[in-house]
Fold this protein.
Amino acid sequence: MLPTLFCFLVLSLLTSSCYALSDYSEQLVLQPLVPASVLASFNFRSNASQSSYNQQHFQYFPRSLGQILQHAHAKELHLRFSSGRWDAESWGNRPWNGTKEGGTGVEIWTWIDASSEEEALMQWNTLNNALAGLFCASMNFIDSTRTSRPLSTFEPLGNHNSGSNLHLFHGALTREVVCTENLTPFLKLLPCKGKVGIASLLDGHKLFDATWQTMSIDVQPVCPADQSGCVMEIEQTIDMVLDIDRSKRPRGDPIPRPLPDDRLICDQNRQYPDENSCYPLDLSAAQDLTLKDLFGRSIQGSCLSPADSTYPVCVAASNSLEVYTTNALAEYKATSGYLRCLALPEKDEFELLIPKQDHARFLPVSTPPIYVERSITGRGQERGGIRVLLRNPSPTHNVSFVYFEALPWFMKPYMHTLKTSIPNTIDEMYYRPGLDRKRGSQLELAITVPANQILELSYDFEKAILRYTEYPPDANRGRDVAPAVIRIVNATTNTSEHVGVAAYLRTTPLMLPLPTPDFSMPYNVIILTSTVIALAFGTIYNMLIRQFVGADEATSEGLKGKIIVALVSVRNKIRDSLSPVATTGPEREKKNI
Amino acid sequence: MEINPKQSASFVARTLQNKESKQPPAEDTATVKAKARVIFSFWSVVLFLGLPLWLWTTSIHRANLPVQEMLAWANGKACEVDVPLLFDIKAPKLTHSEAQDIIRGTSHAISSSKNFDIQRVQWQLSETLDGPRSRNSEEVALSIEFLEDSSSSAPIAQLLLQSKTLLVQYSPAMLRSNFGVYSVDIGKVIGEKLDEIFVEEQLSIEYLLASYSGCNKQLSRFSSTGNNADHFELSAKQARRRTRSLKYAPTYHISISLFTPGPVPTSWDIEAAISEYLLPLLESYSISNFTVDTQLQLYAPFSPSMRSPEFDWIKQQWIIREEDLGGFMDTANWPLSPNIGAGPTLNFILYVPDESLRPLVINGSGDHSWIIPQWGGVSILNHVGRIPTILSKEHLRPVLLTFSRQLLSLLGASDNPTSFPQQLQMLTRIHTLSLILSASSTLGSLAQLAESLATIPIPEEVALRVTRALDHLQMAQRNSHAGRFRSALEYARLAKAEAEKAFFEKDMVSQVYFPDEHKVAVYLPLLGPIGVTLLASLFKEIKKRRPTKSQ
């Protein structure tokens, strides 16, 4: 077991070789995954000295973002755009221990320096509006109902002045579809704009075709131990899991098709009833791959790095894995035996080939500290329940974590129904009930799951009836519920790797079906009630003002009389033509009137 | 008994005729009266309860706007704002009467020129040998200092560059002039100089008033009557200046960016360069504040839509066509978003072309910098030799001087600046006037809008803002008349801001439009059946009463 080896390796590499040297560094780590995927992890770091940041002299730090943050007095910002699902069962632990990951859609949390709560809230709205414009995302819709203020789930990562009065805000937009229009402004923030360096691999077509991807931006002040020469640091990361088969499909013809017969490779170990049958071998299980296959292009030179002092491209696998490169200047192999890094040429193209080989040479699959599943239970339009399964895979150690959930206001949980399958596992609980149309309810639980056990957490909730105008377009789809955030406090206390390293993971979002009205209802109501009222009114009114007389006393002068005469003659004509035998006139008359 | 259909029809008709003879029993008067009262009471409920209730619930709140006053400002009152010039005379060695003589001489000289028709000229004597010292609180447009210099043969008037002072050198002999006309020479010299200094301002003011539709003054130089080539050129020059310069704002953001298509230079010594070459200018421009930010953008080639530069073999330089300058900036990819926060942003772009494309100049003029009206300026750095990774302060000096020039031009300063403090004074006066005109025109439009669209709501907020704007306009006019231009500018700015806010109030446009089908769909199901019944009964009742009256 090599839990969180990946993250450990990358962290150690970044801090040792590149980060300390320059104001800008970038890193790409490719990690082949079983059965046929690749985790590509891009990391870009830029620094600006605190004084130049305050005076708005921007060099590598993007001006557009810097000005927004200064305008909103945001001292630390974390922004995430994610889609897809991380398959923890087959891929193991999350990259960066989940710290660079967000829930599906857009997630943002920030620390704002403000003297009062109202002011901080105002700045938070300003910040969201400005970021919405910068990143082409609907973040302006993060209003008070989508804002939460978790107590212990997030801690500021930067070194902040002790005098500043920081307010934490957290917002999530689950329904937001992350796409190319978010990637383009993301790339514009980089000093080399995705034109050279590892960022030249990033292409919207491939990135958003990935099985799982997350883009993150973290801005925080970082101070060295002696508190002098503080810098504002912006770290942008993109992590994605690419399916090799899918990536290799030509762009013009992305539909998977069966191979022609002559190219089929049959499994020779099986017995066949006749010559025409074939059990094809699963070729994707072991495939060669190149950067061009994966990303559609090769790396175009290096960005801002002086020749061979940095190693921007790494492959996280056993050092016995065969890797072929073109134009690589130098190679660095980590002593752990599971990471090698390559220096890029200054201007030429760089290509990398990993031939097809045994999975034993890949990085061993690590075990995450906890597995989570969250789902909605119950049926009907009125009520429902939430059930969370938390499985601690460690055979020896307990795992403690903070479970944070921000529910929309129309989902009203009954806290008295909160149950755990194992008693006394909730150490602490913070619950802030929601207010209709003002804020959602917020739940934070400090939980410890004993070793090798599954904890089931469940509670019931009631669905509120929304107003006519509060339904989104496509109301029958249901409303999204933001993913729960889990912050692992101590995963395995014994192993040194985990000390001081925060780990996060997020559940998948939920879909909450809500009772939807018939949207033409207001008009129907108007018409129906109006008709009833008009009927009643007409009857009463006529009763009051009409004179009631006998049938033979009714006057028939004018138009009415003429119409009756005409009608009677027409009817008689028809009747006469139909039946040869006609009744007598006076008798008919009696019948009619 | 058998009858044919025709007979049947006539029979029916006859029976109906016969039936007329059988009358219903007459209603007694009490019932008739009761019925009339029923109809009357129903209708009174409709008219006195229903209708007012409907009107009250569907009415649109329209606050009272001082429409007449707003229109008055828009149609002429704004044109009456005057921006007088005050000349202050310091002549420690002249007697009061001598100074008065010089003033008379100068007044005579400038009255013969048409320039000072539009601005009132005032004089004050702040320092003379014997006379009383008068000192106004008003702002002095120009102070004229007299310096005795017996060696000079003719009077010399000279504008000092660092202050708004006109230095006049004279010899005492000139004062004791022959023919009984005193100080004609000095007056003439001063008059000519004043004319030269203030012609630009006069032209700007005239152009402002001429281009404002509300003023129907026949202005000599820009009116349609004087349409010879000379006037046309004057007008075009003024128009160019107006379109180029930004509107006045109390704060401007200056954003200086370096763009280069390659990886160098990676850094520039811009902080030091700004503090040395740009800050002095910004600090002395006292009517506005500035914030400065800078950025460095690598790998930013110019727009792909631009035609690539061509090489001129004779001059050994790369040439961009003038018509291509519009496409030079890659607005889609260059991060040139305006600053967040109030105030307009002025962008200055330093472009360092690739080594293979140097020197890069504009076709025709051979220049390497240009202004983008109301937006900013661009300058190309044609560094000789390899570009250093760090651009030093010395490299940036010519660039920042170009930017300073462009900045002044964008702020509305004249092309041939005389003295900077005097320019600033001039800009204050012109900005005051233009803000007053623009605020008035906004108020006029708002008044017209409110009058022409009867269905838009007018919130109290708008009325309040309009009142405030009118007050500020009044104050601006008063201050301007008194020569206190700094406060006049401030009031004019406030007036403009209030007027704009009133005009763009978002509650005014909301719910302006309910389609008629919508209204029909809501009202008809109820009002149709009820209305028909009520109306029919009313008509019947009236009809019933009419013949009784005529009888």
